[in-house]
Amino acid sequence: MEFHQQKGELSIEFRNMILKSIKRAEKRGTEAVTEEKFCILFQSSFHLGMTVNELQFEVWTISLPVVVTVHGNQECNAVATVLWDNQFSEPGRMPFAVPDQVQWSELVHMLDVKFRSLTERGLTQENKQYLATKLFGMC
Q: Which of 29, 39, 56, 82 suits a disulfide with 62, CB 3.0-4.6 Å?
């Protein structure tokens, strides 16, 4: 466990966490396993003060979405599911409720940010036009 004073963040690294079993929901239509999202519930209780009964806190939070895959060939679709959820979720939503469709401008912005995070440069206008052509068949 590590507290980052400047950011005011507490972080924990789970080095030996293993998923032993999973109970999947029944498939709805053509839904793939890479579209099924889960979360990890983190909860703890702690005491502040000299006696156990002074100040007791029960805290909890859920993780960002997690997609469970069984084969490496599912990784791209799983990353896409998590990326979509992280980008297009609304504050205060029901967990993992996201729109099925978004405007092209929002989608290309997300792709640009992701590309920039991986390559340290954004998509060019030509790149964006190429993607639009592939998606929409535009010339």
A: 39
User: What's the average model confidence in pLDDT over 35-49?
Assistant: 85
Cα–Cα distance between 2 and 12 in angstroms, integer?
Answer: 6
Round to whole Å and give the CA distance between 79 and 102: 18
Chain centroid, CA 93 distance in Å: 14
Among residues 117, 98, 114, the alpha carbon closest in space to that of 131 is found at: 114
Q: Which two tokens stand for residue 75?
A: 């990784």
CA separation for the pair 65, 106 (Å, rounded): 20
Per-residue pLDDT reduced to its tens digit, 91-133: 888 888 899 999 999 999 999 999 999 999 999 999 999 999 9
